[in-house]
Amino acid sequence: xxxxxxxxxxxxxxxxxxxxxxxxxxxxxxxxxxxxxxxxxxxxxxxxxxxxxxxxxxxxxxxxxxxxxxxxxxxxxxxxxxxxxxxxxxxxxxxxxxxxxxxxxxxxxxxxxxxxxxxxxxxxxxxxxxxxxxxxxxxxxxxxxxxxxxxxxxxxxxxxxxxxxxxxxxxxxxxxxxxxxxxxxxxxxxxxxxxxxxxxx
Length: 201
Known about the structure:
Elements: E1 2-7, H1 11-20, E2 25-31, H2 34-44, E3 48-51, E4 54-55, E5 58-59, H3 60-70, E6 75-80, H4 85-93, E7 98-101, H5 106-117, E8 122-123, H6 125-137, H7 143-153, H8 158-165, H9 169-183, H10 188-197
Helix pairs in contact: 2-3, 4-6, 7-9, 8-9, 9-10
């Protein structure tokens, strides 16, 4: 038997997902908050966590590193209704092992669970299509470039970004210059607009 936990803001949804599981999976807990999720992981040591993004006490994606800190070998499969390429990419970059939209059918859900539990990565068909369409019009950015871009969009100065990321002023300046070149933007204002339009943050 493979133990898993379902973390979803809506109890009825979590219970419905639990009823869809095949006999070789056992749900050892339903969590409505990130705090409850962390407690259940520490108590039951599940192999898999089905995690929604919109939780009452925070963002599920932002919580991934702390949840993995509780159990490093935990496999995390995002199960959500957020169908945006930028959100999907952020989840994968944050350590999620898979991403399934709630519009997926039971067969795809079970295939995703089996794949992630077995050590693979799984992105449902609809989410994969969103990523591919996004990549057709957006340049590839490194994780550090995405960090810098996010702070630029938030309105931070180069000095503030350097301090927050523990980088040199000139290093951050080089990153912003590279980002403008990759996105074909002559200045910061146009960089911000382009980043938002391409869902890069």
